[in-house]
Each structure stands twice: as C-alpha cells, then as structure tokens.
Amino acid sequence: MSIHTTCDGVSRRDFLRVGALTGVSLSLADYFALSAQGAISSAAKGKAAIFVRLGGGPSHMDTFDLKPDAPDTHRGEFKPIKTNADGVMISEHLPKLAKCADKFAVLRGVSHTLAAHNLGTLYMNTGNRPLPSLNYPHYGAVVSKELRGVEHLPSFVAVPSLSENATGYLGVEYGPFETGSTPQAGKPLDVRGLALRNGVTIEDVDRRQNLVQRYDSAFGSFAKEDKVLAGMNQFGEKAYAMMRSPKARTAFDLGQESASINGMFGTDAFSQSCLLASRLVENDVRFVTVSLGGWDTHSDNFNALKNKNLPALDAGLSGLFNALAAKGLLETTAVFVTGEFGRTPKINARGGRDHYPRAMFCVMGGGGIKGGQVVGESDAKGEGPKDRVITPDDVASTFYKALGIDSRKEYNTPTGRPVMIVRNGTPIPELVS
C-alpha cells in the first residue's frame, strides 16, 4: 500500500500510531477497545454511511466545478461533459460518474479559510472548525456512538486506516477498526486481527480465551469494578466471537461478490476499497471510510489528474453508487465525498494549483439525500461562492440529518464540558427535508 505525504509533511497514515500498533502486534481485542456501541436513532432514514476522503485537496476547477468561460490562466485543460442529470456538468475525465449523476448531488462553492492540510482535514472530517482546546470526533466516531451495530462486527471500519485522531473528546472506544491494508482484486483481504498467522489455530485462541477467563476469576470484583479491565474484558469477548464468526469473515470476503457487482468496479486499490465498503454496509457495518490520496498537485496538475486520480475516482465512486443501488442499499446508505479544500483557480508557473479553501466541492448521495442536482455556485473564475456560502458545518449538519442524528445534540467531554456535535451549521434544505 502506497503512503502519500502532503507538501506540509502530513502523512496519509498516522505513521507513529499505526506503526506502533503493528510493531507490538495488537490483537483484535485491542482494536475492539476502539468501537463501543451507542443508541439507535429510530428516525434515521440512512442506516449506514460511507465517507470517501480525497486526501491532499482535489481541484474543484478540474473535477466537479469546471469554468470553461474563465480566462485561460484559470480554466485549465479539461472540458465539461453532460451527465444523466439535467443541467449537471462535470469533468470529461469522469465519464462513468456522468452516467450515474442522478444518484448524487454536487455541492459547489463550499468555503472555509483553513489552507493547511491538517487543519482542513480536521474541519471537513468533523464539521467543526478546529480549536486548540478541544478535539472534535470524526463523523465515524459519532455514528459509532449513535447507531448501534450488530454482534460480531465493528460499527466503524477504516480502509485501510485513518491519519488523524478519530475519536476526539468521545474517547477511544468509538474509534475505527482499521483493516491495515487495502483490498487487491482477486486476492483475499488479510485483515489485521482476523487472520490467524504463524501457525496459530482456533484451538490456540480457545486456550488463550480460557486462560483470560481464569485470570478474570482470580481478579474477582476488582476486574469488574475497574473500568479499563472491565472494558478490555468486554471487547476481548467480542473480538474472540468475531474471530470465530462466519458472518465476520463473510463481511470482509470480496470473493463472495457476484460477477455483476465486481464488474462495476476497477481493479485498482481504491475501487476495491469501495467494493469492500459496499459489502461491509450490506453486512450491517454502520460507518466505513475509504481514502484516495495524491491530490496535492502543486505541479503537473493536469497529467496527474487525467492519468491517475480521475480514472481511479471515476471507477471507484461510480462503482460504489451503482453497487449500492443494485443491492438496494442506496436509499439507506449516505455517501459523503470530500477533500480538505480546493485548489487555486489560477494555474501556477509549474502547471499546478495550490491550496485554496475559499472554494471547493463536496459530493453527497444516498441515505435520502436528493441526487441529480447541483447545490451552490462559485463565481465566474471559481474564486469563491457566487452568492450563497455553504460551510463545512452546513455539510456536516446535512450528513448527520440524513442519518437521523441531531447535529445540535450535546455531549459532555471528560471534564464535563457540554459540546454540541456540530457547533454551527444548518442542514441544506435542497438535499434533506
């Protein structure tokens, strides 16, 4: 698996965290200390969500918000093409998405002011402008808390990992189960923690579990009263059950997908990750993140996009929308696609575009979100919103509403401070009623 690094040195994977976990061979039980359950929202139209992270900051001008009438210093090399949604135009290098644009909405003129990768990522991944005094939780952590998962499966899965602290003030129990690798077409996915390695058998695991139970008995009431020990025991039991569970193994097994579903996707890692995401929500995982990096195009923007990034995005994302629809899951699965910011409308001297948070795009669909439309508009040169400003807070509130989660609901931090899930923001009425 390749690791992309942005221009400011932020890795797409949190090297210290993921590397350390791998180095000490944390068990599946340790991972399940990151995924406790919450309460079901009975009003939820969306029952699950898939968050697609475009790390590095994709250019809005070359993807979903082209400006063919802008000066040649701005408009770039790509032409817009019609889609199957009336009036919606996107890049010529997204032909597969053009054929399923009725399944998603394009948000244009989304705007903020944070031009650093890390800060922009925190904002777009939480719906809250970052504060030095408070770490806000990722969407997946909130969904993990609010929407109860099923037995033997995590509520929140990251393919392959997340580069930031996903749990924020909620605590580690709501973090993701990380697969540790991306799927490869035609090969079984070796999910870290599920696979038995180095000759270890289920019988060995059984013996270990019996030993743990004997230690629990020896500790007696102390183990029950201590929150850490009691929690690890709970998660250990769930991890043990998942390791033995045919349902868990089936959920991660792409070999069981039909030829018709497989044919909707490319063979690259991003496409296969999107295929896995569709399979996981089909098996009742509540929240899945997938990532496509490499959008930090300060130079050679157009070659990078047309030869690599856009074909991968086109194959994977179109496959995701079409597969969810074919499986009857699109109406109940909210999909949210975003980078951390857009890129400068004016092309720089190296044929690239630089960081630009004043104008960017998001794509949203499924979960009751009304597709086949463009919401918002940037100005003639793509330099900012034309009239109406859509903030990351508004997008977050919309995403949560699609899942039946009240974004104004208050949580308490460990110090007792009341904090709303999203401090500001209003659901976008054109997308969710």
Number of strands: 14
Query: Structural class of the secondary elements?
Result: alpha/beta
The overall pLDDT average reads 85
Distance between the termini: 40 Å
Low-confidence segments, given as residue ranges, are: 12-41, 222-235
Computed over alpha carbons, the radius of gyration is: 22 Å
Which band does the percent of strand residues land in? 5-15%
The share of residues in helices is 25-40%
What order do the helices and strands follow? HHEEEHEHHEEHHHHHHEHEEEEEHEE
The main sheet orders its strands as 6-5-7-1-8-11-4-12
Largest sheet, strands/sense/barrel: 8 strands, mixed
What's the multimeric state? single chain
Number of domains: 1
Determine the number of helices (DSSP H or I, runs of at least 4 residues).
13
- Principal-axes geometry comes out as globular
Describe what this molecule looks like in 3D.
With 433 residues, this protein is α/β, with parallel strands linked by helices. It has one domain. 32% of the residues lie in helices and 13% in strands. It has 13 helices and 14 strands. The protein has helices at 15-23, 28-32, 95-98, 117-126, 139-146, 202-219, 221-225, 227-244, 246-251, 259-262, 269-282, 301-326, 392-402, and strands spanning 48-53, 80-82, 89-91, 104-110, 156-159, 177-178, 287-291, 333-338, 342-343, 355-356, 360-365, 373-375, 410-412, 418-420. The strands form 4 sheets. Strands 6-5-7-1-8-11-4-12 form an 8-stranded mixed β-sheet, with helices on both faces. A two-stranded antiparallel ribbon has the order 2-3. A two-stranded antiparallel sheet has the order 9-10. Helix 11 (269-282) packs parallel to helix 12. It is globular. Mean pLDDT is 85; it is low at 12-41 and 222-235.
